Amino acid sequence: LKNVNEMLNCTKFVNQIVHNGGLYKRPFNEAFEETPMLVAVLTYVGYGVLTLFGYLRDFMRQWKIEKCQNATERAEQKDFVPLYQDFENFYNRNLYTRIRDSWNRPICSVPGAKVDMMERVSHDYNWTFTYTGRVIKDIINMGSYNYLGFAQKAGTCQEAAAEVLSQYGAGVCSTRQEMGNLDKHEELEELVARFLGVESAMAYGMGFATNSMNIPALVGKGCLILSDELNHASLVLGARLSGATIRIFKHNNMQSLEKLLKDAIVHGQPRTRRPWKKILILVEGIYSMEGSIVRLPEVIALKKKYKSYLYLDEAHSIGALGPSGRGVVEYFGLSPEDVDVMMGTFTKSFGAAGGYIGGKKELIDYLRTYSHSAVYATSLSPPVVEQVITSMKCIMGEDGTTVGKARVQQLAENTRYFRRRLKEMGFIIYGNEDSPVVPLMLYMPGSNFTTTCHVLKIGLFVFSFYLYVKCIYVLKRS
Amino acid sequence: MAAAGMGQQWVLVEMVQAFYEAPAYHLILEGILILWIIRLLFSKTYKLQERSDLTPKEKEELIEEWQPEPLVPPVPKDHPALNYNIVSGPPTHIITVNGKECINFASFNFLGLLDNEKVKSAAQASLKKYGVGTCGPRGFYGTFDVHLELEERLAKFMRTEEAIIYSYGFATIASAIPAYSKRGDIVFVDEAACFAIQKGLQASRSNIKLFKHNDMADLERLLKEQETEDQKNPRKARVTRRFIVVEGLYMNTGDVCPLPELIKLKYKYKVRIFLEESLSFGVLGEHGRGITEHFGINIDDIDLISANMENSLASIGGFCCGRSFIIDHQRLSGQGYCFSASLPPLLAAAAIEALNIMEDNPDIFQTLRAKCERIHKALQGISGLKVVGESFSPALHLQLEESCGSREDDVKLLKRVVDYCMDSGIALTQARYLEKEEKCLPPPSIRVVITVEQTEQELDKAASLLKEAVQSVLN
User: Fold this and answer.
1) Does A177 touch chain B (CB under 8 A)?
2) Does the predicted TM-score (pTM) go above 0.95?
3) ipTM, 2 decimals?
4) What's residue A71's pLDDT?
């Protein structure tokens, strides 16, 4: 690791500190250091070498010099149109399989601060895995999104969930509009509305589905969606399914957003020039890929000036930002009434599953009637609902203790300490100072895999990582 | 080589000669043209959008004048879908709806596993070991050993190579279809396909061809048309994938798809079959393996089977099973799998225990089917309502024989029937649809769900109560 860092001898820095007078009540420090030239070149060279080797191996496989180990089509269906195009699978066969061991690692304990992992080995270069049966115990967990530590196997949350499980069972077997609306769901929604400071809220069974099934209910043909460059796949899918026109603005760039808004209102719909029915801006609270926080005061100012609507996805920021964990709106000291649609998930900070949308009563009434999820999808499972209720009450302090508040403060301190120490050691860290998601840049494909193996051997850390479109590998910490 | 070199040299010499011999105006003209090309290459591109004859002041005025629609239109207070029934307590066999105790004929709890003690204790054990949530997607430390175990068990139960689980039933088929079928591919789908399939098809951006419900002749006609198209353009046909998407037991009509004929069509026209078995898994077949067991078909003939675990298994989530060649692809391309948190372990443990019960008691399927036949017969005689669905289907529809005129009035009438039944102790519900979004909107109906826990007296009571209700409401 030390060798890699010495190579990252960067002097260029892109640091943005904004004190925009009335809009921002606190300093906003985000940094996205530029990649050093040598590192960028070496990364691309690394990829080039991998691709060449990939072609070589494919060639060898075609000429039967090497055994082909991935699954193949049935003999009876050999004359059907091939299911996968050759290049789709090139990446899978030749690049991904080499380092497949770093993903999908199975664990066998609660995803708390320390986690137990099942040991697995591969005797054929990651084509198949076998479990040795040994369990590697007590690995420090820096890969699960367990921000406030509510994923616990003992404690008030777990006991309450156990109680509800024995009373209600695990499933629901019906949709919200038919026979799946339990009293627990009504309790949860009333609590979420109080937590966020909005008039009303509605909860759904899956965070991904909350976006992909509600955005089509809100906007349709003739509407305009302005979506951030780096939005999550669920927001992109929801926007596509709605049928509205989508325009992308540069990540967190308010000039780009303003330009798009101006042009949209002045010129209207393309070709027909009719005015747009409505404009919806899709942003996230914390972007999990970059670790950046949305410039919410500026977005709200723009939204008010141009009369558009704001959809804020707080999947990572709810519970993790703000002095009392109320999310990015509280972090900036703004009013929840300014955000038209506040969406979030229960998976990260609350240690449960599912998503919610909060807003004005008319909005939620409309969603109750026309949301795809309310009509066709099963409602939340009762023990999961209970986990959310208990953890939310804990954060709000309604259970009579200060545990929740202490956890939120501890998370903020941990975040700042960790980021400061990593910077002191010389790593390149992306993102906002206060964001608990820390992308640590490693760049080269080779160094990534060896890093993961090495740190696991020491027994200390468990990282998660994934590939980036721009050929940069990233280590994350939550 | 030397001769070629000489040849090249000759061309060069000729060129230089020509240059010297050309008239001056010719050279000047060529020089101007080259400069013009260079200027065009480096000048700014001409953006249509920015070409505007409006002054900044006019733009300001336009921005001032523009009034958007409200974010959502107001919903009338008495909208039928706005006021939910509130269920206090578990939605089991005896259910308390809006404060009244009723017998549950509305939850899809076919095998009665919702309040099974063994299932609950397995879930409790898992809760004590893992807590509730998984805090991560499958790729990043969200894979627990329970998930792997559940996938293995499902694959073994269905006798396929591999299975993959999703954390939400709706997302299962809606993520599976776009993983394989892309823009330019062709999908033949039944008109009565459920909404999740429709969303999956919309996300895939493929060409959708609807065929009349369960009409194999219509499907064959479409396939033949496609064949003639292919002969016109064989190159394109070689890379266009084709799929047929059908359901085992249709949610909207309660009948089964003719699977043997579909398999014949599959091999004749080289089309792949995706089968959605949410209602037929754990219901049809000798051991509950679904429609393939019901018809005695080799499971490898079906390319992908998708089902949700929210009906017979009384848990949450869904799964796809099939050969590894097909299923493994979803681990990187299934959106609902890669970008979403994994299934909470307690729900996975509940599903495993439910599978155990299904394997240990294979006679419950026959019991369920016998009950379905019984009530199907009993509901036949009601004048004013017609029963829609197969005799062995546990999810039936009751539609009005004669419509009142408009859909709204039909819905109101059926609501009165449902309310009458609820007041007398039978919990029923109307089948809910999004009227503007469905491709082929089914007529309004009452959903009747049969479970193994219902006794014969209760079934008879329900049938007679429905008869009474219809008579009193229609007269």
Assistant:
1) yes
2) no
3) 0.87
4) 75
